[in-house]
Amino acid sequence: MTTTTQQSALHDPKSAGGRAGDKIFSGIALTAGIVILAILAFVALYLVVESLPALTAGEGELTNGKTSFWSYVGPMMVGTLIASGVALLLATPVAVGVALFISHYSPKHLSQPIGYVIDLLAAIPSVVYGAWGMTFLGPLLVPAYRWLSENAGWIPIFAGGYSQTGRTLFTASVVLAVMVLPIITSMCREIFVQTPKLHEEAALALGATRWEMVKMAVFPFARAGIVSAVMLGLGRALGETMAVALVLSPGVLSANLISAGNQTIPAEIALNFPEAFGMRQNELIAAGLVLFVITLVVNMIARWIVSRHKEFSGAN
């Protein structure tokens, strides 16, 4: 009987069509993956080839006035990492809190409007954020910078005066935090909603408060997803150009977050590439290669962290 059924299934046109559809879909998925890897490889190859003249240039050959390429890109690399790191420190707690409020605390008639507003923040162009940071947020933070300089000047990040215009690395970090907030919030919200209801109900049935239930059931389940959301936000912050370019005023890198004179790699490229040619263009492409490597390393670290916590072990 079983053999007859198998033979009829083999000759069933619907089964044959299903197998053909599976093969077609598998081929399309494989092709898409290969295309993405090929594009990434070509981008990396282009960056390496165009960067070689700047990376191998001797003293006096660079057009930026520096003795070597690394003395040119080093301060911008540090500025990029500081701005992105501070942005994540500001955005992550707020994003996780908002996502948790929408998914577990907010009444139903409020959760959807709040979610729509958060998603709307992601649709605002970066140049609008930059203009807002330069014309409104920067001057608004000047009194706070003055207070920090006068009362917390013994801390290195607040030492050495403050910017009278508010166009500082900290202002740029706040703008970046607002820009990555909807990305982290949206992803965390979707992950929190997917927490198994049986785990939540079991924790509540054992006498846990809602916050204890969140700690025992929701956070362990969403740990890997939260890390992925944060790393996605970090990628957005690392690559942001126009918002940072509008807020920051170019200058020498300093450890002071509230003074002028810091710059990031994306902003440097955005401001100078349209008019660059020759060695200057190679220098900017080499700076882009450095940013490419930083982003790649960050994503590899994120994947490693996620792989360590991919199995849910908090409540099962």
CATH architecture: Orthogonal Bundle
Largest sheet: none
CATH superfamily: MetI-like
Provide the gyration radius in Å: 25 Å
CATH top-level class: Mainly Alpha
> Alpha-carbon distance between the termini?
42 Å
Fraction of residues in H or I helices: over 70%
Mean pLDDT: 82
Task: Give the strand tally.
Answer: 0
Structural class: mainly alpha
Tally of contiguous helical segments: 11
Uncertain residue segments: 312-316
| CATH topology value | MetI-like fold
Brief account:
This protein is mainly α and 316 residues long. Helices cover 75% and strands 0% of the residues. It is built from eleven helices and no strands.
Name the descriptors.
single chain, 316 residues, MetI-like fold, 11 helices, Phosphate transport system permease protein
